[in-house]
TrEMBL record:
Domain Tyrosine-protein phosphatase, chain residue ranges per copy: 133-276
Full protein name: Serine/threonine/tyrosine-interacting-like protein 1
PROSITE patterns registered for this protein in UniProt: TYR_PHOSPHATASE_DUAL
SUPFAM superfamilies in alphabetical order: (Phosphotyrosine protein) phosphatases II, Rhodanese/Cell cycle control phosphatase
Cross-referenced CDD domains: DSP_STYXL1
Pfam families: DSPc
Protein origin, superkingdom: Eukaryota
InterPro entries hit by this protein: Dual-sp_phosphatase_cat-dom (IPR000340), Prot-tyrosine_phosphatase-like (IPR029021), Rhodanese-like_dom_sf (IPR036873), STY_interacting-like (IPR053272), TYR_PHOSPHATASE_DUAL_dom (IPR020422)
Amino acid sequence: FSAEYFSFPDVRSKQDYDESHVITAHRVKKRGNEYLIPQSVDLECVKYCVVYDYNTWSLKIHLKDDNNTDSDDSGQELVPGAALECGRILTHLTRHPVWILKGGYERFSAMYHFFRTQKIIWMPQELDAFQPYPVEIIPGRVFLGNFIQACDPKIQKDLKIKAHVNVSMEAGPFFVGDPDRLLHVQIEDSSEARIFPFLRHICHFIEIHLELDSVILVFSTRGISRSCAAIVAYLMHQNEQTLKRSWTYVKKCKNNMCPNRGLVTQLSEWEKTILGNSITDILDLSY
């Protein structure tokens, strides 16, 4: 939530904003047809600018009917949604792309109620205290994280985690003694470590919990190597797709993923097991 990286312009009404908004969001006022960007926000420094209104779902222009039935087009005109309209203006003020929150605040707050607040002013030490949450691989169902996140009871409660896949050497505090909800595959953080013999078991464990509508957290010590390899292997298995395609998807969700060379070689073996042939040139994967 650092102001150097994120900005959340809220273009809803003042009443809606005061009732609740995304943590650290600032309300964008409108005077006539002009959006007024708060002077405290330096958009040139922002890497991720995410605009949201109440419930915009599409970037398409909507039809507005002013009830004028005298014309051939029945008084209809094309108008952008509030988030889209404001986002277009912000593109001239930022160095990076402007994002529109799909489904708006209505959808976001329903899925991530723990990111709602009425607080407006944040102290720097409060912003520094924010802890990142695990990343979503399958929205609301499968998360990828690290050992610290796996040990945080607030994160477990907020995300409604019901099962863990632990591919680190450390033992976590949750679901101990319950093999139905904890799969602990002890793999060292080493290029010589073997994960291949456990991949089918990992995939089946995740599949079973998805069928049970459980929320699963897959994690390793730092959440960038062993757990990422496990998630990539699951996507290859579940979707019967190439290593490269699964890798690209996970990389998009977690851009600092970095399975070690030994794990990548084993994922290539797994691709051959899943598809009958090694299709992906692992030298083409970006580490």
